[in-house]
Write a structure and sequence with these properties.
Length: 365
């Protein structure tokens, strides 16, 4: 990855915005800009920050535990703090002629932001809340990123197919989830990109069900939503099926969701609004009288994070751009009966899109 280029681009943007330095705390943003991999153990337990002056040397700020890996992974000068971030920032601000220091207000504890404001008062500098500066850069993926995402999708599908072949009605949701996550790690994934969803019967009516001890059983709806992280990049795929023979009602509903998914995929191209892409699937489902059963957005961006901008929803005001990677995942849910969701990932290309998924398991009933 060309981290230097990314940092230079961001520094140019800071200069345009008259920001003298930006503190980057969001873990995916840190990784995007520098290759630094350690994840935070929650927002209150940071593994580091990038200190990015509009001009001059970018530094990685961290504590003793990560100082070695920080240097190895990023090649950037590392400043270590022992008494927390704020005292070190004070030193850095004193050494440079910073007048306006920005921080990622969408990924900073309120208590930390209060300390930053206090620091600003002491040092007579302005503290500027900034959000989405790096996320904006992450919206479209370059060729290298697109290729890593393709590989992540491919590996995820291989894992799914391997576990799918061994499914039996006597397995519990948890056993299936465990088989999937074990297979992911064995196949070389860093980890699952989110907690694997395996939901059977009425559980599958919960779009984000957690797997439990109940058996997946035969002749009832099953939904598996899974993704992995490979070299930092995420995949995300959902398949809904019935072990055994699906009845006519299931087939009809499943075909409807697939038709909705295809309608949206056909609409994907640059300059089309997210709203319209969402509408295309929604129209198909509403046409069958199930508008209320499709209560979530159609999709989301995928990259270093499994859920990232853009949101593909009826409330989005954004338009698609070539290089974006998004999911198309319509679903319908009926309490007591179950649910069906089908999720594929696509790359927006100059003249349409590239569907990344090749898996066709139970896709066309
Ligand atoms: Zn998913
Ligand atoms: Zn998704």
């Amino acid at each position: 990855m060309d981290y230097r280029h990314r940092l230079e681009k961001l520094q140019a943007r800071l200069r345009r915005k008259k920001i003298d330095a930006l503190l980057v705390s969001q873990p995916d943003n840190r990784r995007y800009l520098s290759g630094y991999t350690p994840a935070d153990h929650g927002i209150a337990e940071s593994t580091g920050h990038l200190f990015i002056p509009a001009r001059g040397t970018v530094r990685l700020l961290t504590d003793f535990r990560y100082q070695t890996i920080a240097g190895l992974e990023t090649g950037l000068p590392v400043s270590t703090y022992s008494k927390g971030l704020i005292p070190l920032l004070k030193e850095l601000v004193s050494e440079t002629s910073i007048q306006r220091l920005a921080f990622e207000s969408h990924y900073t504890l309120h208590s930390t932001s209060l300390k930053l404001v206090e620091l600003g008062e002491q040092k007579k500098i302005k503290i500027v809340p900034a959000s989405g500066l790096v996320e904006k850069m992450r919206l479209t993926k370059n060729e290298q990123e697109r290729d890593l995402i393709r590989q992540s999708v491919r590996l995820n599908e291989r894992v799914f197919q391997q576990v799918y072949r061994e499914l039996t009605p006597a397995m519990s949701e948890i056993e299936v989830a465990l088989a999937i996550e074990t297979a992911m790690r064995r196949a070389g994934a860093e980890k699952a990109s989110f907690e694997t969803i395996v939901a059977a019967g009425p559980n599958s009516a919960l779009p984000h069900a957690s797997p439990g001890t109940q058996l997946i059983g035969g002749n009832r709806p099953v939904t598996i939503d899974m993704g992995l992280v490979l070299a930092g990049y995420c995949s995300d795929m959902t398949r809904s099926f019935v072990l055994g023979r699906p009845d006519e009602e299931y087939r009809r509903r499943h075909r409807l969701v697939r038709k909705a998914q295809k309608a949206s995929i056909a609409a994907v191209r640059p300059d089309v609004s997210m709203k319209y892409v969402d509408h295309c699937a929604r129209k198909v489902i509403a046409g069958a009288g199930y508008a209320k059963a499709f209560g979530h957005a159609l999709g989301h961006g995928v990259g270093l994070a499994v859920h990232e901008a853009p949101r593909v929803s009826s409330r989005s005001r954004q338009k698609l751009k070539a290089g974006m990677v998004i999911t198309i995942e319509p679903g319908i849910y009926f309490p007591g009966w179950g649910g069906i969701r089908l999720e594929n990932m696509v790359i927006v290309t100059e003249d349409g899109c590239e569907v990344l998924n090749r898996d066709t398991t139970s896709l066309d009933l």
